[in-house]
Amino acid sequence: MVLLKQKGFTLIEMLMVLFIVQVMMFSIIVAIRPLVEYYKITLFLRQLQSDTFYVQQTAMNRESPIKINFAPKGTEYIVSDSRAVLYKRAYDSTIHITFGSGNSTIQYNKNGNISQAKTIFIRNQKFKYKVTFQIGRGRFYVDKM
């Protein structure tokens, strides 16, 4: 009896290919995890920077004080003026914010200056940053620790 040629793969060959694909996918996922943590905190810092510039400009335009208030044990900060809340901004629960001095409010006066110097420590599982708000011109700096 003559066997016809069958074009296909054996079960062993298929299992080996699936195993190799699985190992490659697992290694990619393990390599991406630190990048995700980095981008979470980087995105938060960029958003905080944009919101801080917005608060400063709005305080000068409206000629009234505007503040950023960080929730004590929450994952959001609230931007408000003396009359109402302008908006709330939520951030990832893996990001922790600690104030080095004073309360958890950053306030810009009608001239766009900060009313009190502040230091904020922002960290997640892998990265730590220090944000320094200087009194006077309302400038702030972000330093990686």
Automatic annotation (TrEMBL):
The keyword Membrane applies. It holds the Pfam family N_methyl. It is found in: Cell surface. Keywords: Competence, Membrane, Transmembrane, Transmembrane helix. InterPro entries: ComGD, N_methyl_site, Pilin-like. The chain crosses the membrane at residues 12-36. GO terms for biological process: establishment of competence for transformation. It comes from the Bacteria. One of its GO terms (cellular component) is cell surface. This is ComG operon protein.
